[in-house]
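Please check these two lines:
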Amino acid sequence: MESPPLPDSASSLFGHVTAEKAGLYRATMEVFALAKRQFRLHLRPDEVLREARWPGQSPSLDELQLALAQLVDWGNLLAQPDTSRVTSVEDFYRKRLLYRMTSGGEAVEAGLQVFTATLARRAELQSVALEDIRSRLLGLSELTRASPLDTAKAHIALRDLAHVFESLAANAEAFMAGLARAIDLQRADVAVVMTFKAKLIDYLERFLGDLVTRSSQIAGLLRELAPIETVLLTAASEREARDAAPGDLPSETEAIAIRLSAWRERWEGLRRWFVSDGRGMSQSELLRKSALGAIPRLLQAVSTLNERRAGRSDRAADFRRLGLWFMDAGSEKNAHRLWRAAFALSPTRHLGLLAKFEDGGTSVSWKDAPGVEVFPQLRQRASLPTRGAPPKIRDRSTERALLAAQVANETAQTDAARRRLATGKETRLSALGRLDRHAFGLFLTLLGEALAAQTDPQKPVERLTGDGTLIIRLTALGPETRAVLETEVGRFAGRDYSVVIREV
């Protein structure tokens, strides 16, 4: 018997989660989910009553049947008559039903299980996953050497590889997101926090060691598999498409195309995680950089906790202690003495100020005394100006004009060099012509950045400059070609390339 269609509002499938007797409904549905995992098709009410783990006192059979009926109304369960053999007169007159989960109920249980597992998951940096990815790629490399290709083994290896990689990426992202909260954990017990952060630093250092070693090996294997990755992904897509419902030729072709697109997306994600595209760092390099940056912050936090444990206090603690002293002063006179001692509110007759105090400056309260002029240098630097004439002001207008002219000249030369090279048109190095000193310096900088990002001398490379204003693209010509550039500082010779330089 087929499951009934979903209710008009899919939210009714989740009605038992927030209902008044949510505990009863959830315990009932958990029994059906367990039966589904054990390949049991149907359950009777007495079996549900016996096998469920009720949150409190077990309900009566009538209460359970009412709950089952409500779950049927919500669309989570399907009821059908129980045609099994009757063993008593009471069973004959009782309405007997068998219950099983609908497709909507199964989807709700699967979603709630994933939701609970996600909340309870503890993020981690999986060094073992790095080794698993490497071993799967080695297995794929071995499979590609056989002829013909074993499609089943290649599909299984790709599927395991995708599963391990998704777990690695998700856990690493969650761990680094929670690492900032771990660093800021300062209000717990000092001994516990010290132990935790020391273990966390060791944990990061171990993972970074594995990441540096394994990521380079994985990147090398991915580059080795690059020429045949399309063959592998197509084989896996065609094998998965065999399970699709039968149809005409266009629908079967579409099924293969959909699965191939999904596999290409997974493979591209794996490549970006371990192989840099020349425009920025790979995700593994970013993870390594983030983890390396977290270690000094952790060490600083540990140092701060060590200082606190050694007895050093901060300003807030000092003010709290001072407040307790004021409470214990006993009299207003003692409080004033404490105030003057704490904040240095004492006569300042040792300062050579402009004010002249007729009464000595000690018998008048500071709040009733007239204002006193303070030298600006005393206020800013806590020192009085020296006696004598002020120093002469040196006229530096000539030096400033010379410096401005030099900067303007260098800017003009740089702009001219950029206009000379950044034409946006494809040309050969041998056809660039004679370059002046500034254009040649800019060209060397661009060429160096492009060649540094090149992983294969036979493949084109495109690179964004460090200042983000120019893009250079190099395409290698034949190894027998040769380019010679005439410059003001000499000749520059080497292999010829097709080059495009354009502004962003």
